[in-house]
Amino acid sequence: MDISIIIPLYNEDESLPKLFQWIERVMTTNNYTWEAIFVDDGSTDDSWNVILGLKKEHPQNVRAIKFRHNYGKSPALFCGFQTAKGDVVITMDADLQDSPDEIPELYRMITEENYDLVSGWKKKRYDSKLTKNLPSKLYNATARFVTGLKLHDMNCGLKAYKNVVVKNIEVYGEMHRYIPYLAKTAGFTKIGEKVVQHRKREFGTSKFGINRFVNGYLDLMTLWFLSKFGKKPMHFFGLYGSLMFFLGFIAILVVGIKKLLALYQHIPAILVTDSPYFYLAILAMILGTQLFLAGFIAELISRNSTERNHYLIETEI
Question: Considering only CA atoms, which of 283, 290, 206, 289 is closest in space to residue 248?
């Protein structure tokens, strides 16, 4: 099979028929063998009945997954990835803001230019500048700095992947924003970008609020830490814990030596416990010890993890 199209959705019953007709027209025009995988993320409207109708009319091309309640986009993509059969996997939103006309070029970039992943870039957007465009620019600038991936729109829902990529990454929580980074840390480093059309929403309202940007930064920090120190936490906690303890210990020595020198020279000096530096030094030593112990405990947990020797093997002969 050439293409699997994964469409996570939540309360999009009005847009689904038009979206499927559009996808079918593109697939037929290009003679692709394909499947559309609809993942209903616990919709409360008529979305599932619409999908059942599409499945009845097009049993060879429509597959569907229905969650019992709203888990989120990442779990929907994860389940879609697990069931996808196409050589190239396309993800797109169900709200008609992603254009299926982009699929042929995305497919070509994967199959002919041998990209592992191609991410869409909605260069010209029709969202509110204040609530979406400006925060999105700041978010993407931070993501580029932290991940090292020079993508302008990492959170774009329209992406193309080799099948092997989606089978070897785990998307969970709200990590769908950072799938290119997940792919990079899994060893799939040929990641490209394509300017894609962004369309105005025709039906309903956006399901994402401003809080997604706050959550996005927290998730980014989590991914960065796990990719750098996930299998060697002591390298992080032990280093900074030891450094903080050492600085605190040196500070206490300085305070103590200054007191002893003052006593030796019969110079009046305040009590050591009256010096603020004494308490700062003690605090640094305590925090350093706690960081070191956190790293030690994390190492024990890591050693007992079932994933400790999980490696992605590209070739074995």
Answer: 283
Enumerate the β-bridge partners of residue 234: none
Task: Band the pLDDT of 306: cuts 50, 70, 90.
Answer: low
pLDDT tens for residues 161-200? 999 999 999 888 778 888 998 899 888 999 999 999 887 7
Contact 130, 152 (CB under 8 A): no
Check residue 220 and give its pLDDT: 74
**Distance, CA of 265 to CA of 187 (rounded, Å):** 65
Count other Cβ atoms within 10 Å, centred on residue 69.
7
With helix as H, strand as E and coil as C, how does 244-260 read? HHHHHHHHHHHHHHHHH
Q: Answer yes or no: do 290 and 216 share one domain.
A: no
* CA–CA separation, 3 and 32 (whole Å): 7
Strands 88-91 and 159-162 come out as antiparallel
- pLDDT category at 93 given cuts 50, 70, 90 is very high
Q: Whole domain around residue 268: which residue ranges?
A: 234-303
At which of 201, 229, 257 does a domain end?
A: 229
